[in-house]
Design goal:
By secondary structure, the chain is mainly α. The protein is built from 2 helices and no strands. The N and C termini lie far apart (about 75 Å).
């Protein structure tokens, strides 16, 4: 669950050789924030995709509904 945080911390620690508590806290906050942003971006992309698919479905239904109602109407040309 926190493997990504550990990987980032170990990478930064290898580069800097030392980290204080504030730096560790900031790294954890940054990794978790980026993960949440990625989840939110993915959620919004899926929502936009669902909206496009719904609009496409509605557009297909309108002509079908219009054709069905014109066929069921009685012939007024008698």
């Amino acid at each position: 669950m926190y493997g990504d945080v550990v990987i980032v911390l170990s990478t930064v620690l290898r580069i800097k050789r030392t980290l204080d508590g504030a730096e560790i806290d900031w790294i954890i906050w940054d990794v978790e924030t980026r993960k949440e942003l990625a989840i939110e971006h993915r959620r919004r992309a899926e929502w936009r995709k669902a909206e496009v698919e719904a609009e496409r479905f509605r557009a297909q239904c309108v002509p079908i509904a219009a054709a069905a109602s014109s066929q069921s109407a009685p012939d007024r040309m008698r």
